[in-house]
Amino acid sequence: MFSVTCVAPVNIALIKYWGKRHEELILPVNDSISMTLSTDELCAKTTVTASESFERNRMWLNGEEVPFEEGSRLQRCLKEVHRLAVANGSQKVPPTWKLHIASVNNFPTAAGLASSAAGYACLVYSLSRLYDIPLSEELTTVARQGSGSACRSLYGGFVQWHRGALDDGSDSVARQIAPSDHWPNMHVLILVVNDARKKTASTRGMQQAVKTSQLIKHRVEQVVPDRITRLREAIASHDFQAFAEITMKDSNQFHAVALDTYPPCVYMNDVSHRIVSFVHDYNDRMGSYHAAYTFDAGPNACLYVLAEHVPHLLSAIQKVFPNDLADGDTYLRGLPIPKVQMLSAAIGFTGCSC
Amino acid sequence: MFSVTCVAPVNIALIKYWGKRHEELILPVNDSISMTLSTDELCAKTTVTASESFERNRMWLNGEEVPFEEGSRLQRCLKEVHRLAVANGSQKVPPTWKLHIASVNNFPTAAGLASSAAGYACLVYSLSRLYDIPLSEELTTVARQGSGSACRSLYGGFVQWHRGALDDGSDSVARQIAPSDHWPNMHVLILVVNDARKKTASTRGMQQAVKTSQLIKHRVEQVVPDRITRLREAIASHDFQAFAEITMKDSNQFHAVALDTYPPCVYMNDVSHRIVSFVHDYNDRMGSYHAAYTFDAGPNACLYVLAEHVPHLLSAIQKVFPNDLADGDTYLRGLPIPKVQMLSAAIGFTGCSC
Questions:
Q1: What is the ipTM of this complex?
Q2: I need a labelling partner for A139 at 20 to 30 A (CA). Which of A70, A161, B167, B246 fits?
Q3: Residue ranges in chain A whose pLDDT is less than 50
Q4: How far apart are CA A240 and CA B92, in angstroms?
């Protein structure tokens, strides 16, 4: 019997991934760039056990067994890992031995924090440790086939997922742009916003966007490539002003494309938009960008802020949003106001580890 | 002393006007199409009096005097009307006589129902009656210089405002596509949604969109021309299915462009989006489009529906939105639920009249 336990981080996209050019291989219509968060606050944790005595593959997610179906993304990832194990001449664990996989997130799935990205990154990374496969660009293509943005969670720091051009997806890989210690005073605050509204799942939302939005094509071809170049430069030169503006604009444009989808997909709510207004007002008051927001396919805000500005920003947030927090439409993991600061600060960023 | 009193209708854009190519002349970046509402429910009413004894031009809006400043849009419209009066050889009222102008809306300005469009249309139409100038394409260019969409309120029925190509704006005119009796069973329901949020004024929002949105150019050049053609065909052939889809998509895209503006402009709120979801769900249930929404630069919904479907739609709305109505975040002109139906139905559509 062999067993391995690994953790994988959450990553937050700065240039958004929205839209696939191949559904099954999960090939994106454009490059994306993300920042990986520290696993100290938020992570997925997976234990994979291989044993000659197991009769079949089984998987538990947050304690509940989930089906391990033929043709599923889970199955697909496992097959790809087996292929890599053979290619690498790895013989540590016989590929015929069945697996028991147990994965947990230390944050609520309902928080909408891309749990599937951390989850699939953790699964693939754990399997790679089990079968003794080195972390490589090719391994990111395996994670990608579990959940697109999972490929970015294999690395710490700033990571670019390349669209690629090949039909088989072998060049649609994630690469680290800068390691986790490159911009050590970069911090993230996550404001979790409660939301009762039924959302369109990301997979479906993307499909509909590619099919029906007349603006997404222009975004993909004319807007994103330039933003990728400029964000890379901003990261390389620690230019928070450029970083903030590109990040906020790309978040807005992703939600604009979702709204241009038919029927429209709406992920932000009134509280999200109040956070956006707050950030712009706050930056105006400060005289330069001290904070930048980004929103994924949900109402929660991720705010980027440099370490030295965290205390001031937090106190400003708590002044502006006490009523919302009190009447229950904004909360952080269900905890009362004084805890916002404690739990929302995800400081530093690291990749997968075992 | 001469006096004239006219009424002008509200018009609701189906293909949205958003963005100017000339600020002062109010020349739009794209064509737009609107439907003019009946003046029975909603209208602006203006009385213009000319007298040799008046010492200066004065204007009252809803009972309050407003400044009549040199260089204002008001002044500009008056000058243009005087120019047309001379060109038309009109001698009824001496152009040296000063004017007293009193204008009222029979609906709250706060309802966000394009009161300036009806207001300027009414002003210009009243002046044209006073000075005996015929209603013409040229007169629509005068109303346009008061408030862009005002040019569309001079006519009843379906109206197209042409972008035009000339620098002096003389070909940026409104023309009737179909008269008010062309589609007699076309009805509009207006759902007024309360909103506390501070909005970006339309003029500023448009300027910012043209300056900062990377998507608006694509909309203007690649999307709108085709939609104009197809909506004209849908109107000509009474094709409610095509009419509904084009109208909803264009409303969504206008709000997408507003969101892609930097900083973003957000006009719809959570209740607006719940109305959108409701309309899509309702149409799904009906098996075809029975209702179409459109939202201007505010949270209120205009729903298009054929006369024979009004009662069923109204009862469905009242089933879905009673809680919102009860807890105060959706209301119709501040009145309780049972009045929704009464006040929201603007049936039929007519142009200006005296």
A1: 0.89
A2: A70
A3: 323-345, 347-348
A4: 66
CB-closest option in B223, B260, B273 to A252: B260
Helix B310-320 × helix B270-286 angle, to 10°: 130
Query: Across the interface, do A262 and B255 touch by the CB < 8 Å criterion?
Result: no
Domain over B2-178 is classified CATH 3.30.230.10: yes
Half-sphere CA count of B109, side-chain side, radius 13 A: 7
User: Is it the case that residue B320 has pLDDT exceeding 90?
Assistant: no
CA distance B147 to B279: 31
Chain B: residue whose CA lies nearest to A259: B256
When the candidates are 3.30.365.10, 1.10.1040.50, 3.40.50.720, 3.30.70.890, the CATH number that belongs to B186-347 is 3.30.70.890
How far is it, in rounded angstroms, from Cα A115 to Cα A201? 13
Q: Which of B44, B238, B39, B235 is nearest to B156 (CA)?
A: B39
For residue B196, how many C-alpha atoms fall within 13 Å in the half-sphere facing its CB? 5
Contact residues on chain A for B252, CB-CB shorter than 8 A: 259-262, 264
pLDDT at B335: 29
- Band of pLDDT at residue B57, cut at 50, 70 and 90: very high
The per-residue pLDDT for A108 is 62
Cβ contacts of B340-346, under 8 Å, gap ≥ 24: B340/B191, B340/B314, B341/B314, B343/B41, B344/B189, B344/B190, B344/B191, B344/B192, B345/B41, B345/B187, B345/B188, B345/B189, B345/B310, B345/B314, B346/B10, B346/B37, B346/B38, B346/B40, B346/B41, B346/B42, B346/B187, B346/B188, B346/B189, B346/B190
Task: Measure A153 CA to nearest chain B CA, in Å.
Answer: 28
Q: Where are chain A's structural domains?
A: 2-178, 186-347
**Contact indicator for B64, B143 with CB cutoff of 8 Å:** no
Kindly identify which residue of chain A lies nearest to residue B266, measuring between CA atoms: A273
CA–CA min distance B83, chain A (Å): 43
- Other CB atoms within a 10 A radius of the CB of residue A273 amount to 20
Give tens-digit pLDDT for A270-285: 888 989 999 999 999 9
Q: Helices then strands (H, E): number in chain B? A: 11, 15
Which of B140, B122, B142 is CA-nearest to residue B77? B142
Mutate to test the interface with B, among A15, A215, A250, A293 (most CBs of B within 10 A): A215
Q: How far apart are CA B317 and CA B58, in angstroms?
A: 44
